[in-house]
Write a structure and sequence with these properties.
The protein has no helices and 11 strands. By secondary structure, it is an all-beta fold.
Length: about 120
């Protein structure tokens, strides 16, 4: 089983970007999916979570700017970033965990906010 991410890249301050996380080899709809950021030399931090049923929660730092969603029929979760800020220059990782504590990480995608 694995998670494959896409969608990172360069974005201007105030701009938008969408990440995708596609699961394979797992019953994707049974997993809670979360998105984590990691800046240079920093620990990985949780930005947002979406339950298997689609209920989102957000860290205060991204609330109102980021939106998580999922389409279980496509084994895909999304993180939409808007109003990006320079400190959003990080590597983003998606993570999936089920009730048996099986868990997987995506490979990470770099987001660079630059004018």
């Amino acid at each position: 089983a694995q998670l494959v991410e896409s969608g990172g890249g360069l974005v201007q301050p105030g701009g938008s970007l969408r990440h995708s996380c596609v699961g394979s080899g797992l019953v994707f709809g049974s997993y809670v999916v979360s998105w984590h950021r990691q800046g240079p030399g920093q620990d990985r931090e949780l930005d947002a979570t979406i339950s298997s049923g689609g209920d989102p929660t957000y860290a205060d730092s991204v609330k109102g700017r980021f939106t998580v969603s999922r389409v279980n029929a496509k084994n895909t979760a999304y993180l939409e970033m808007s109003s990006v800020e320079p400190n959003d220059t990080v590597v983003y990782y998606c993570h999936a965990r089920d009730w048996l504590n099986n868990n997987y990480w995506g490979q990470g995608t770099q987001v660079t906010v630059t004018s």
